[in-house]
Design a protein that fits this description.
The chain is of the alpha+beta class. The protein contains two helices and ten strands. The protein is globular, with a radius of gyration of 19 Å.
């Protein structure tokens, strides 16, 4: 294959990816992402849907916290299928030990008070609706989260796993001008 043909093929592939991405955004499809980090020797992975602040098919910016994501109701922590966390080693979040394995994460945001990260032992479920009575037996824990105000708006829901300067790690969730976070340590 000649150099010109390779260049044209490369341009076609990039163009197709851009068009497909734009079509997905226009259709309101939230892209999915898998993030991972190794903290104190343990690989931690999160797979989640990344919705945008902009209402699908429009230029309207939605109110996220207390709007699209109501306060006081369990949220799937992303879009579409429920968010999944996998850890190779046991983690300690607050007073809860999370054995190595796979879990579903939900969030209980509150306007005033302490937001909660809900760790559910059941995986493979769709993100909504969350029936708290039915899921009570599947919940491993509800862990306190810290809520912070960000300096800049985050247009697309973003999660991060980062090392904590004082040891262990931090799980972060950012959207709009709000960041929720929970620290954890790796159990040796």
């Amino acid at each position: 294959m000649g150099q010109t043909m390779k260049r044209n093929l490369s341009k076609l592939i990039v163009f197709t990816a851009v068009v497909a991405s734009a079509a997905s955004l226009k259709a309101g499809v939230s892209p999915h992402e898998t993030i991972s980090a190794t903290i104190d020797g343990s690989k931690i992975t999160i797979t989640y849907g990344r919705p945008y602040s902009i209402k699908p098919g429009t230029t309207e910016v939605r109110k996220i916290w207390g709007g699209l994501v109501p306060y006081g109701k369990v949220w799937r922590t992303g879009a579409d299928a429920a968010t999944v966390l996998t850890t190779e080693q046991s983690l300690v979040l607050g007073e809860t030990t999370l054995p190595a394995g796979k879990y579903t994460l939900f969030t209980l945001p509150v306007e005033n008070g302490t937001p909660k990260l809900i760790i559910n032992k059941r995986t493979g479920q769709w993100g909504i609706p969350y029936d708290e009575k039915k899921e009570a037996e599947n919940e491993l824990a509800r862990v306190d989260m810290k809520k912070e105000t960000l300096d800049k708006d985050v247009d697309q829901f973003t999660m991060a796993i980062e090392p904590n300067p004082s040891g262990g790690g931090v799980l972060k969730m950012m959207w709009e001008k709000t960041q929720y976070l929970v620290t954890f340590t790796v159990k040796k």
